[in-house]
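COMPLEX REQUEST
Ligand: shikimate-3-phosphate
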Amino acid sequence: MGGVVVPKLTEYRKTVDCAPDKSVSVRAVIFNGYATGSATVKNISRCADVMSAAQCMRELGASVRFDGDSAHITGAAFRGAKLNCGNSATTARLLIGLLSGLNGVFELDGDTSLRARPMRRVTDPLREMGAEITDTDGQLPIKIIGAPLKGGEFDLTVPSAQVKSALLLAGINASGTVRVTEKAKTRDHTEIMLREMNGRISSDGNTVTVAPSVIYARDMTVVGDASAAVYLVCLALGIKGGACTVKNVGLNPTRTAVFDVLRASGANIKTDNVRGGAEPCGDITAEYGGLRPITVSADVAPLVIDEIPALCALACAIDGVSEFAGVGELRVKETDRIKTTVAALKSLGADISATADKITVRGGKRLLFGEVDTRGDHRIAMAASVAGAIGAGAYIADGECVAVSYPDFFKEVIGV
Ligand code: S3P
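STATUS: Structure written out below.
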Protein backbone atom coordinates (compact mmCIF):
# COMPACT_ATOMS: atom_id res chain seq x y z
CA MET A 1 0.00 0.00 0.00
CA GLY A 2 2.80 2.45 0.86
CA GLY A 3 1.62 6.04 1.12
CA VAL A 4 -2.05 6.98 1.16
CA VAL A 5 -3.59 10.32 0.22
CA VAL A 6 -6.49 11.16 2.52
CA PRO A 7 -8.72 13.79 0.92
CA LYS A 8 -10.53 16.54 2.76
CA LEU A 9 -14.08 15.21 3.23
CA THR A 10 -16.89 17.73 3.02
CA GLU A 11 -19.68 15.20 3.60
CA TYR A 12 -19.74 12.17 5.86
CA ARG A 13 -22.65 9.74 5.85
CA LYS A 14 -21.77 6.13 6.63
CA THR A 15 -23.44 2.95 7.80
CA VAL A 16 -20.93 0.15 8.32
CA ASP A 17 -20.51 -3.12 10.20
CA CYS A 18 -17.91 -2.56 12.87
CA ALA A 19 -14.48 -4.14 12.31
CA PRO A 20 -14.03 -7.14 14.64
CA ASP A 21 -12.37 -6.51 17.97
CA LYS A 22 -8.60 -7.05 18.02
CA SER A 23 -8.29 -7.62 21.78
CA VAL A 24 -11.04 -10.24 21.79
CA SER A 25 -9.75 -11.91 18.61
CA VAL A 26 -6.20 -12.27 19.96
CA ARG A 27 -7.58 -13.83 23.13
CA ALA A 28 -9.88 -16.17 21.18
CA VAL A 29 -6.87 -17.50 19.25
CA ILE A 30 -4.57 -17.89 22.26
CA PHE A 31 -7.12 -19.32 24.70
CA ASN A 32 -8.67 -21.80 22.23
CA GLY A 33 -5.20 -22.75 21.00
CA TYR A 34 -4.26 -23.71 24.54
CA ALA A 35 -7.62 -25.21 25.59
CA THR A 36 -8.75 -28.81 25.42
CA GLY A 37 -10.82 -29.50 22.27
CA SER A 38 -11.69 -27.56 19.11
CA ALA A 39 -13.67 -24.40 18.44
CA THR A 40 -14.81 -22.14 15.64
CA VAL A 41 -14.42 -18.41 16.20
CA LYS A 42 -16.72 -16.37 13.95
CA ASN A 43 -16.23 -12.76 12.86
CA ILE A 44 -12.58 -12.95 13.86
CA SER A 45 -10.30 -10.04 12.98
CA ARG A 46 -7.78 -10.81 10.21
CA CYS A 47 -5.52 -7.99 11.38
CA ALA A 48 -1.76 -8.43 11.65
CA ASP A 49 -1.77 -8.74 15.46
CA VAL A 50 -4.22 -11.67 15.27
CA MET A 51 -2.06 -13.28 12.57
CA SER A 52 0.95 -12.95 14.89
CA ALA A 53 -0.98 -14.64 17.70
CA ALA A 54 -2.11 -17.42 15.33
CA GLN A 55 1.42 -18.07 14.10
CA CYS A 56 2.69 -18.29 17.71
CA MET A 57 -0.03 -20.82 18.54
CA ARG A 58 0.93 -22.93 15.50
CA GLU A 59 4.59 -22.90 16.58
CA LEU A 60 3.44 -24.14 19.98
CA GLY A 61 1.59 -27.06 18.33
CA ALA A 62 -2.01 -25.83 18.00
CA SER A 63 -3.91 -25.82 14.72
CA VAL A 64 -5.32 -22.44 13.61
CA ARG A 65 -7.02 -22.38 10.21
CA PHE A 66 -8.71 -19.26 8.83
CA ASP A 67 -11.69 -19.68 6.56
CA GLY A 68 -13.39 -16.43 5.46
CA ASP A 69 -14.20 -14.51 8.61
CA SER A 70 -13.94 -17.61 10.84
CA ALA A 71 -11.05 -19.44 12.43
CA HIS A 72 -11.06 -23.14 13.31
CA ILE A 73 -8.78 -23.76 16.25
CA THR A 74 -7.69 -27.01 17.88
CA GLY A 75 -5.69 -26.86 21.07
CA ALA A 76 -2.58 -28.89 21.82
CA ALA A 77 -0.22 -29.78 24.59
CA PHE A 78 2.43 -27.18 23.89
CA ARG A 79 5.98 -27.99 22.91
CA GLY A 80 8.89 -25.63 23.48
CA ALA A 81 9.15 -23.09 20.66
CA LYS A 82 10.66 -19.88 19.34
CA LEU A 83 7.87 -17.34 18.94
CA ASN A 84 7.70 -14.14 16.94
CA CYS A 85 4.98 -11.90 18.37
CA GLY A 86 5.39 -9.32 15.60
CA ASN A 87 3.98 -5.96 16.72
CA SER A 88 1.54 -7.46 19.25
CA ALA A 89 2.23 -6.68 22.91
CA THR A 90 -1.02 -8.42 23.85
CA THR A 91 0.29 -11.64 22.28
CA ALA A 92 3.70 -11.30 23.95
CA ARG A 93 2.48 -10.42 27.44
CA LEU A 94 -0.37 -12.94 27.54
CA LEU A 95 1.89 -15.71 26.28
CA ILE A 96 4.60 -14.90 28.83
CA GLY A 97 1.99 -15.44 31.55
CA LEU A 98 0.50 -18.57 30.00
CA LEU A 99 3.81 -20.26 29.18
CA SER A 100 5.65 -19.54 32.45
CA GLY A 101 3.96 -22.42 34.27
CA LEU A 102 4.12 -24.99 31.43
CA ASN A 103 6.74 -27.60 30.60
CA GLY A 104 9.23 -26.51 27.98
CA VAL A 105 11.59 -23.79 26.90
CA PHE A 106 9.95 -20.86 25.13
CA GLU A 107 11.68 -17.95 23.44
CA LEU A 108 9.68 -14.84 22.58
CA ASP A 109 10.66 -11.99 20.32
CA GLY A 110 8.96 -9.30 18.27
CA ASP A 111 9.53 -6.44 15.83
CA THR A 112 11.61 -3.36 16.64
CA SER A 113 8.65 -1.58 18.22
CA LEU A 114 7.72 -4.54 20.43
CA ARG A 115 11.37 -5.02 21.45
CA ALA A 116 11.29 -1.51 22.92
CA ARG A 117 8.26 -2.11 25.13
CA PRO A 118 8.46 -2.71 28.88
CA MET A 119 8.07 -6.31 30.00
CA ARG A 120 9.12 -6.07 33.69
CA ARG A 121 5.55 -5.14 34.57
CA VAL A 122 4.73 -8.75 33.60
CA THR A 123 7.95 -10.62 34.39
CA ASP A 124 8.48 -9.19 37.90
CA PRO A 125 5.18 -10.48 39.38
CA LEU A 126 5.53 -13.75 37.47
CA ARG A 127 8.97 -14.27 39.03
CA GLU A 128 7.31 -13.82 42.44
CA MET A 129 5.12 -16.79 41.48
CA GLY A 130 8.24 -18.83 40.68
CA ALA A 131 8.65 -18.18 36.94
CA GLU A 132 12.11 -18.62 35.41
CA ILE A 133 12.44 -15.84 32.86
CA THR A 134 15.52 -14.27 31.31
CA ASP A 135 14.89 -10.92 29.64
CA THR A 136 16.97 -8.38 27.75
CA ASP A 137 17.12 -5.28 29.97
CA GLY A 138 13.46 -5.77 30.85
CA GLN A 139 12.46 -6.18 27.20
CA LEU A 140 12.20 -8.81 24.48
CA PRO A 141 13.84 -11.14 23.51
CA ILE A 142 12.76 -13.21 26.50
CA LYS A 143 13.46 -16.83 27.37
CA ILE A 144 11.14 -18.79 29.64
CA ILE A 145 12.06 -22.10 31.22
CA GLY A 146 8.69 -23.45 32.28
CA ALA A 147 8.54 -23.94 36.07
CA PRO A 148 5.94 -24.81 38.71
CA LEU A 149 4.16 -21.62 39.79
CA LYS A 150 2.55 -20.81 43.11
CA GLY A 151 -0.37 -18.45 43.62
CA GLY A 152 -0.06 -14.84 44.74
CA GLU A 153 -1.76 -11.53 45.43
CA PHE A 154 -0.94 -8.54 43.29
CA ASP A 155 -1.89 -4.86 43.47
CA LEU A 156 -1.23 -3.49 40.02
CA THR A 157 0.53 -0.15 39.94
CA VAL A 158 0.22 0.22 36.15
CA PRO A 159 -3.32 0.20 34.75
CA SER A 160 -2.91 -2.63 32.22
CA ALA A 161 -5.26 -5.33 31.00
CA GLN A 162 -2.27 -7.10 29.49
CA VAL A 163 -0.49 -7.39 32.84
CA LYS A 164 -3.70 -8.48 34.57
CA SER A 165 -4.31 -11.06 31.84
CA ALA A 166 -0.76 -12.44 32.02
CA LEU A 167 -1.14 -13.03 35.76
CA LEU A 168 -4.57 -14.63 35.39
CA LEU A 169 -3.28 -16.97 32.67
CA ALA A 170 -0.33 -17.90 34.88
CA GLY A 171 -2.93 -18.53 37.60
CA ILE A 172 -4.78 -21.22 35.66
CA ASN A 173 -1.57 -23.29 35.77
CA ALA A 174 -0.43 -22.35 39.28
CA SER A 175 -0.72 -24.51 42.39
CA GLY A 176 -2.66 -21.81 44.29
CA THR A 177 -5.03 -18.93 43.76
CA VAL A 178 -3.98 -15.74 41.98
CA ARG A 179 -5.65 -12.49 43.01
CA VAL A 180 -5.16 -9.29 41.02
CA THR A 181 -6.41 -5.88 42.16
CA GLU A 182 -6.45 -2.84 39.89
CA LYS A 183 -6.96 0.81 40.81
CA ALA A 184 -9.42 1.22 37.95
CA LYS A 185 -10.96 -1.70 36.14
CA THR A 186 -9.27 -2.19 32.75
CA ARG A 187 -10.78 -4.19 29.87
CA ASP A 188 -11.99 -7.54 31.18
CA HIS A 189 -12.10 -9.67 28.01
CA THR A 190 -9.75 -12.23 29.60
CA GLU A 191 -11.97 -12.72 32.64
CA ILE A 192 -15.10 -13.05 30.49
CA MET A 193 -13.58 -15.50 28.02
CA LEU A 194 -11.87 -17.68 30.62
CA ARG A 195 -15.15 -17.92 32.52
CA GLU A 196 -16.95 -18.98 29.33
CA MET A 197 -14.27 -21.65 28.85
CA ASN A 198 -14.71 -23.23 32.28
CA GLY A 199 -12.06 -21.13 34.07
CA ARG A 200 -12.60 -20.87 37.84
CA ILE A 201 -12.53 -17.10 37.91
CA SER A 202 -14.50 -14.49 39.82
CA SER A 203 -14.53 -10.70 40.02
CA ASP A 204 -15.43 -8.47 42.94
CA GLY A 205 -15.13 -4.76 42.16
CA ASN A 206 -11.61 -4.22 40.87
CA THR A 207 -10.31 -7.55 42.19
CA VAL A 208 -10.17 -10.70 40.07
CA THR A 209 -9.42 -14.13 41.50
CA VAL A 210 -8.51 -17.23 39.51
CA ALA A 211 -8.05 -20.75 40.81
CA PRO A 212 -6.17 -23.50 38.94
CA SER A 213 -8.41 -24.49 36.03
CA VAL A 214 -8.73 -26.69 32.98
CA ILE A 215 -10.10 -24.64 30.11
CA TYR A 216 -12.14 -26.04 27.24
CA ALA A 217 -12.33 -24.72 23.69
CA ARG A 218 -15.54 -22.87 22.97
CA ASP A 219 -17.30 -21.64 19.81
CA MET A 220 -17.71 -17.89 19.91
CA THR A 221 -18.49 -14.84 17.80
CA VAL A 222 -16.27 -11.79 18.14
CA VAL A 223 -18.03 -8.43 18.63
CA GLY A 224 -17.03 -5.23 16.84
CA ASP A 225 -14.13 -3.11 18.06
CA ALA A 226 -15.23 0.05 19.91
CA SER A 227 -11.72 1.46 19.40
CA ALA A 228 -12.18 1.09 15.62
CA ALA A 229 -15.71 2.56 15.69
CA VAL A 230 -14.28 5.71 17.26
CA TYR A 231 -12.60 6.79 13.99
CA LEU A 232 -15.97 6.79 12.22
CA VAL A 233 -17.64 8.53 15.14
CA CYS A 234 -14.95 11.26 15.22
CA LEU A 235 -15.39 11.89 11.48
CA ALA A 236 -19.18 12.12 11.80
CA LEU A 237 -18.77 14.55 14.72
CA GLY A 238 -16.08 16.63 13.03
CA ILE A 239 -17.47 17.08 9.49
CA LYS A 240 -20.33 19.56 9.10
CA GLY A 241 -23.62 17.68 8.65
CA GLY A 242 -21.87 14.35 9.28
CA ALA A 243 -23.54 11.19 10.58
CA CYS A 244 -22.60 7.55 10.96
CA THR A 245 -24.07 4.31 12.20
CA VAL A 246 -21.60 1.62 13.22
CA LYS A 247 -23.30 -1.73 13.69
CA ASN A 248 -22.40 -4.49 16.09
CA VAL A 249 -19.99 -2.46 18.23
CA GLY A 250 -18.78 -4.25 21.37
CA LEU A 251 -20.35 -2.47 24.35
CA ASN A 252 -18.37 -4.02 27.18
CA PRO A 253 -18.43 -1.17 29.73
CA THR A 254 -14.63 -1.36 30.10
CA ARG A 255 -14.38 -0.25 26.45
CA THR A 256 -17.08 2.39 26.02
CA ALA A 257 -15.78 5.25 28.21
CA VAL A 258 -14.73 7.05 25.02
CA PHE A 259 -18.37 7.53 24.04
CA ASP A 260 -19.12 8.98 27.48
CA VAL A 261 -16.16 11.37 27.15
CA LEU A 262 -17.55 12.55 23.81
CA ARG A 263 -21.10 12.82 25.15
CA ALA A 264 -19.77 14.93 28.04
CA SER A 265 -18.43 17.40 25.48
CA GLY A 266 -21.85 17.62 23.85
CA ALA A 267 -21.67 14.88 21.19
CA ASN A 268 -24.90 13.36 19.96
CA ILE A 269 -24.14 9.62 20.23
CA LYS A 270 -26.89 7.01 20.56
CA THR A 271 -26.77 3.31 21.26
CA ASP A 272 -29.48 1.06 19.76
CA ASN A 273 -30.29 -2.63 19.28
CA VAL A 274 -28.29 -3.67 22.32
CA ARG A 275 -27.80 -7.41 22.45
CA GLY A 276 -26.67 -8.96 25.72
CA GLY A 277 -24.28 -11.86 25.99
CA ALA A 278 -20.89 -12.43 27.52
CA GLU A 279 -19.64 -9.48 25.45
CA PRO A 280 -22.66 -7.22 24.76
CA CYS A 281 -22.90 -5.35 21.47
CA GLY A 282 -25.16 -2.87 19.69
CA ASP A 283 -25.29 -0.12 17.07
CA ILE A 284 -23.71 3.29 17.65
CA THR A 285 -25.07 6.35 15.82
CA ALA A 286 -23.29 9.71 15.92
CA GLU A 287 -24.37 13.05 14.44
CA TYR A 288 -22.52 16.30 13.92
CA GLY A 289 -23.22 19.31 16.10
CA GLY A 290 -22.70 21.20 19.34
CA LEU A 291 -19.25 19.98 20.38
CA ARG A 292 -17.38 21.66 23.21
CA PRO A 293 -13.67 21.04 23.96
CA ILE A 294 -12.87 17.53 25.14
CA THR A 295 -11.64 16.85 28.67
CA VAL A 296 -10.07 13.58 29.75
CA SER A 297 -9.14 13.49 33.43
CA ALA A 298 -6.37 11.31 34.85
CA ASP A 299 -8.84 8.81 36.35
CA VAL A 300 -10.58 8.27 33.01
CA ALA A 301 -7.39 8.21 30.89
CA PRO A 302 -6.63 4.46 31.35
CA LEU A 303 -10.12 3.63 30.03
CA VAL A 304 -9.67 5.60 26.80
CA ILE A 305 -5.92 5.23 26.32
CA ASP A 306 -6.16 3.69 22.81
CA GLU A 307 -8.57 6.41 21.68
CA ILE A 308 -6.52 9.46 22.78
CA PRO A 309 -4.85 10.04 19.37
CA ALA A 310 -8.28 10.02 17.64
CA LEU A 311 -9.75 12.33 20.29
CA CYS A 312 -6.81 14.72 19.79
CA ALA A 313 -7.50 14.68 16.03
CA LEU A 314 -11.15 15.58 16.60
CA ALA A 315 -10.16 18.23 19.18
CA CYS A 316 -8.34 20.11 16.38
CA ALA A 317 -11.78 20.85 14.90
CA ILE A 318 -13.36 22.06 18.15
CA ASP A 319 -13.03 25.73 19.16
CA GLY A 320 -11.30 26.03 22.52
CA VAL A 321 -8.78 24.10 24.59
CA SER A 322 -9.09 20.30 24.92
CA GLU A 323 -7.05 18.63 27.63
CA PHE A 324 -5.97 15.02 28.03
CA ALA A 325 -4.45 14.44 31.48
CA GLY A 326 -2.79 11.35 32.95
CA VAL A 327 -1.88 9.86 29.59
CA GLY A 328 1.74 8.93 30.42
CA GLU A 329 1.11 5.27 29.48
CA LEU A 330 0.94 6.46 25.86
CA ARG A 331 4.72 6.78 26.01
CA VAL A 332 5.10 2.98 26.10
CA LYS A 333 2.68 1.98 23.35
CA GLU A 334 3.65 0.91 19.79
CA THR A 335 5.43 4.29 19.66
CA ASP A 336 5.77 7.07 22.22
CA ARG A 337 2.25 8.14 21.32
CA ILE A 338 2.48 11.48 23.12
CA LYS A 339 5.40 12.37 20.85
CA THR A 340 3.96 10.82 17.68
CA THR A 341 0.45 12.28 18.18
CA VAL A 342 1.91 15.75 18.68
CA ALA A 343 4.27 15.40 15.69
CA ALA A 344 1.59 13.94 13.38
CA LEU A 345 -1.00 16.62 14.14
CA LYS A 346 1.60 19.42 14.06
CA SER A 347 2.55 18.33 10.56
CA LEU A 348 -1.07 19.11 9.63
CA GLY A 349 -0.85 22.56 11.21
CA ALA A 350 -2.50 21.77 14.56
CA ASP A 351 -1.81 23.76 17.72
CA ILE A 352 -0.93 20.88 20.06
CA SER A 353 1.57 20.57 22.89
CA ALA A 354 2.44 18.08 25.61
CA THR A 355 4.14 17.64 28.95
CA ALA A 356 5.33 14.33 30.40
CA ASP A 357 1.79 12.99 30.78
CA LYS A 358 -0.63 15.55 29.40
CA ILE A 359 -1.65 16.67 25.89
CA THR A 360 -3.26 20.02 25.16
CA VAL A 361 -4.97 20.86 21.86
CA ARG A 362 -5.99 24.42 21.03
CA GLY A 363 -8.66 23.70 18.47
CA GLY A 364 -10.45 25.70 15.83
CA LYS A 365 -7.30 26.61 13.92
CA ARG A 366 -7.41 25.96 10.14
CA LEU A 367 -5.48 22.79 9.34
CA LEU A 368 -3.18 22.46 6.31
CA PHE A 369 -2.43 19.57 3.98
CA GLY A 370 0.75 17.86 5.16
CA GLU A 371 2.76 14.66 5.11
CA VAL A 372 2.48 12.52 8.23
CA ASP A 373 5.22 10.20 9.45
CA THR A 374 3.34 7.73 11.64
CA ARG A 375 6.50 5.90 12.75
CA GLY A 376 4.69 2.70 11.75
CA ASP A 377 2.04 3.14 14.45
CA HIS A 378 -1.45 2.10 13.29
CA ARG A 379 -3.35 4.37 15.67
CA ILE A 380 -1.28 7.40 14.66
CA ALA A 381 -1.98 6.65 10.97
CA MET A 382 -5.73 6.41 11.64
CA ALA A 383 -5.89 9.46 13.92
CA ALA A 384 -3.91 11.59 11.44
CA SER A 385 -6.26 10.42 8.68
CA VAL A 386 -9.21 11.64 10.75
CA ALA A 387 -7.53 15.05 11.25
CA GLY A 388 -6.71 15.23 7.53
CA ALA A 389 -10.22 14.27 6.40
CA ILE A 390 -11.76 16.89 8.70
CA GLY A 391 -9.07 19.47 7.88
CA ALA A 392 -7.34 19.93 4.52
CA GLY A 393 -6.33 16.37 3.63
CA ALA A 394 -3.14 14.47 4.49
CA TYR A 395 -0.51 12.21 3.00
CA ILE A 396 -0.01 9.21 5.27
CA ALA A 397 3.49 8.09 4.33
CA ASP A 398 3.31 4.53 5.65
CA GLY A 399 -0.43 3.91 5.56
CA GLU A 400 -0.09 0.13 5.43
CA CYS A 401 0.58 0.04 9.18
CA VAL A 402 -3.21 0.28 9.79
CA ALA A 403 -3.21 -3.49 9.07
CA VAL A 404 -1.98 -4.03 12.63
CA SER A 405 -5.54 -3.54 13.92
CA TYR A 406 -7.82 -2.43 11.05
CA PRO A 407 -6.79 -3.62 7.57
CA ASP A 408 -9.85 -2.11 5.81
CA PHE A 409 -9.56 1.27 7.52
CA PHE A 410 -8.91 3.45 4.45
CA LYS A 411 -11.63 1.79 2.36
CA GLU A 412 -14.25 1.60 5.12
CA VAL A 413 -13.66 4.77 7.12
CA ILE A 414 -12.15 7.26 4.66
CA GLY A 415 -13.51 5.81 1.40
CA VAL A 416 -10.22 5.67 -0.53
C1 S3P B 1 -4.94 -4.39 25.40
C2 S3P B 1 -4.69 -3.65 26.52
C3 S3P B 1 -4.19 -2.27 26.48
C4 S3P B 1 -4.43 -1.64 25.13
C5 S3P B 1 -4.00 -2.54 24.01
C6 S3P B 1 -4.76 -3.86 24.05
C7 S3P B 1 -5.39 -5.78 25.55
O1 S3P B 1 -2.81 -2.25 26.75
O2 S3P B 1 -3.74 -0.40 25.05
O3 S3P B 1 -4.24 -1.92 22.74
O4 S3P B 1 -5.82 -6.40 24.56
O5 S3P B 1 -5.36 -6.28 26.68
P1 S3P B 1 -2.22 -2.20 28.25
O6 S3P B 1 -2.60 -3.45 28.94
O7 S3P B 1 -0.74 -2.06 28.08
O8 S3P B 1 -2.83 -0.99 28.88
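REMARKS: The pocket of shikimate-3-phosphate is lined by residues 23, 90, 160-162, 165, 187, 305-306 (CB under 6 Å). The first helix runs from residue 22 to 34.
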